[in-house]
């Protein structure tokens, strides 16, 4: 199923836009991770990689998008392998805010995603330090197999998140 087929699929959770309002709804696992990506000159590259879906691809996630660059309303369909199973995880971009020293992208899960919730990716270039990348969100299992294997689902979610953090690091900042 290509990304365009997901255009009319509704969100899978009622609190759509909660992260944009600074809200962390109850009943979800809340998470936040941060990494240093590299020097200030790496900011534009990291933003470009995030908006073109390259962060996902470098994380081992196959992606298809309804547009060449992520923007509000664009659907991003992620596919990744867990053992012998390929999981499909469609999301829709809720918000994108960019300025000279900060870029924030937020997406929410669509029906058909194994989990429900939102995830926000924030790149920042402070005047006095290196580029940082922060991922925050709230999530809970949606599909029966995600609920039945909740510990495995949480592990996979953390694994993918850590891969995202590594995917945007400059070569100089990689361990």
TrEMBL record:
It comes from the Bacteria. InterPro entries: DUF1990, UCP010260. Residues 12-166 form the DUF1990 domain. This is DUF1990 domain-containing protein.
